[in-house]
Specification:
The complex is a heterodimer of chains A (about 150) and B (about 150). Chain A is α+β, with helices and mostly antiparallel strands and about 150 residues long. Chain A has 2 helices and 5 strands; from the N terminus they run βααββββ. Chain A is elongated, with a radius of gyration of 18 Å. Classes of the chains: A alpha+beta (about 150), B alpha+beta (about 150).
Chain lengths: ~150, ~150
């Protein structure tokens, strides 16, 4: 990704889509939310909201990896994405059912230099997922450390 | 057996949710699927990162917290919905071999506006290690059914 200083607030990226299968939904629930498996059996088991969020993370990492490869191919410097201190305001407005396709998006909404780690900045983003009917299924605000431009770069 | 309803959650009450151990294999397996950043997969890359060594993905620790919350409290409650999560703070790295303990504190309860049969319970969730270091905190407000009268 770009260095902290070069990322404009407002920059948005589509992170790609993921199809949620019944098998993957059941496997995730068995591992992390088994109480969901005991709910109403007449309806198809919806995905754990955490699975919908974890798939966002996978899509983000893949997107950054592709972005970095493109930058290297153009001879451009690549910044390090650091850990995240956390996130806030996460909502699951609608369930994700087997067979649904969720398309994920990331939009930078704010940034500030880190006071405690001056070689890093903090990037805040609004992240979202929509299903194939255009319904919002995931929304949250993430923060992450991004490497600042090294001196002289 | 009695299933917990909204009225059963008292502000200030603390529930110990249980303990589990996270292995290196757990960390790498989860990261390979959901968060394949080098700091969650490779010792050398992780040592060079801000985490200072291999550590679990924050999303993995959220999932483990949900497992402990489900098994330790929500499984026996009439949960209608978990609309979302107000905040999560990943405060310290979660290392391979760590023993994780979770606890839930009821911060607030309120009836659902416009619905006489349900209410929200705001929970403060905390994950600590064997030295009682706070690894992660989470605030969420599940929607529960009120007791049938």
């Amino acid at each position: 990704m770009k260095f902290f200083e070069d990322i404009p607030v407002g920059e948005a990226a589509m992170l790609g889509s993921h199809v949620f299968t019944a098998a993957a939904i059941a496997a995730f629930a068995a591992r992390f939310e088994p109480r969901l498996l005991r709910l109403d059996h007449d309806a198809p088991l919806p995905a754990s909201g955490w699975q919908v969020a974890c798939v966002w993370m996978r899509r983000l990492v893949d997107h950054r990896r592709n972005e970095d490869a493109e930058r290297r191919a153009r001879g451009q410097p690549v910044a390090t994405l650091g850990p995240s201190p956390g996130f806030r305001d996460l909502q699951w407005p609608a369930p994700v059912y087997p067979g649904d396709t969720v398309t994920y998006r990331n939009e930078v909404i704010d940034k500030r230099v880190s006071l405690s780690r001056p070689r890093w900045g903090l990037l805040m983003s609004r992240n979202s997922g929509h299903n194939q009917r255009g319904e919002l299924v995931l929304s949250f605000v993430s923060s992450a450390f991004v490497q600042r431009r090294p001196d002289g770069a | 057996m009695h299933r917990l309803a909204w009225e059963d959650f008292v502000v200030g009450s603390v529930t110990e949710l249980g303990t589990l151990c996270i292995s290196r294999d757990d960390i790498v397996e989860f990261a390979a699927e959901f968060d394949p950043q080098p700091m969650h997969l490779d010792d050398a890359a992780a040592a060079a990162s801000m985490l200072g060594g291999l550590a679990a993905s924050g999303w993995h620790t959220c999932c483990l917290m949900m497992r402990l919350l489900g098994d330790g409290l929500l499984r026996d409650a009439n949960v209608l919905r978990v609309p979302g999560v107000e905040d999560v703070r990943w405060r310290a790295p979660v290392r391979p071999g760590e023993t994780l303990t979770a606890r839930a504190t009821v911060l607030e309860t309120w009836p659902a506006p416009g619905h006489a049969d349900r209410g929200f319970v705001k929970l403060r969730l905390e994950l600590t290690d064997a030295r009682a270091t706070r690894l992660m905190t989470m605030t969420m407000s599940p929607l529960l059914a009120r007791a049938v009268t």
